[in-house]
Amino acid sequence: MANKPERENIVLIGFMGSGKSTVGRALAKRLRFQFVDTDQIIEDRAQMWIRQMFERHGEAYFRERETAALESLLIGTHRHIIATGGGIVTQPRNVPLLQKLGWVVLLKADADEIFRRVSGGRKRPLLEVEDPRARVEDLLAQRGELYAAAAHFTVDSTGLRREQVVEKIADEAQRVFGWNP
Ligand code: S3P
Q: Is the dihedral of CA 17, 23, 24, 26 positive or negative?
């Protein structure tokens, strides 16, 4: 069993389309936690969409804002579900911040399911390329170990309904945080 985290938060990491926001919101309801999303914090602060930020300032600028969002959450965030952007683990400086923030849960799904979930939107600048499917596979390969190294617990959501994923995380959270059933 994992050590009890410093803070009573659940931090969701994982690839784009792995369900961090939808699972996160449902989990927050289930546990009566607040929900927060680092992408949302970044957009609210900058008053621009992430895709605009990538276009105007580039990815490195976005990554700085992402680390700043994590740092600001370290102050006074308790009993929150914190959803993060899929690339958060690409910056080594972010990993200790994630782990300090709470219990880090990795949501996994296979490439087919990820691709299905991310297709059709124009929300994800990194997938606006000629062959998004190949890009998904490349990025998954690049990031797989980074996600695993940052996570305290992993749930593979391939073929599961959102409620089943929520229950798996809620059950384990009960053990990790030592809550009474
Ligand atoms: C990114 C994932 C996005 C967003 C940005 C970069 C990534 O978040 O942070 O477009 O590098 O994988 P989601 O995982 O919520 O789509």
A: positive
Q: Is the pTM of this model over 0.90?
A: yes
Mutate to test the pocket of ligand 1, among 49, 126, 138 (most ligand atoms within 8 A of CB): 126
- What is the tens place of the pLDDT at every residue in 48-94? 999 999 999 999 999 999 999 999 999 999 999 999 999 999 999 99
- Give the C-alpha separation, 19 to 125, whole Å: 18
**How many angstroms separate the alpha carbon of residue 127 from the centre of ligand 1?**
10
Which amino acid residue places its CA nearest to atom 2 of ligand 1? 86
CA distance readout (Å), 149 to 5, 11, 100, 106: 16, 14, 14, 10
Cα dihedral 2, 27, 169, 22, rounded to 10, equals: -120
Domain 10-173 has CATH 3.30.1330.10: no
Structure token pair of residue 4: 């009890």
H/E segment holding residue 103: strand 103-108
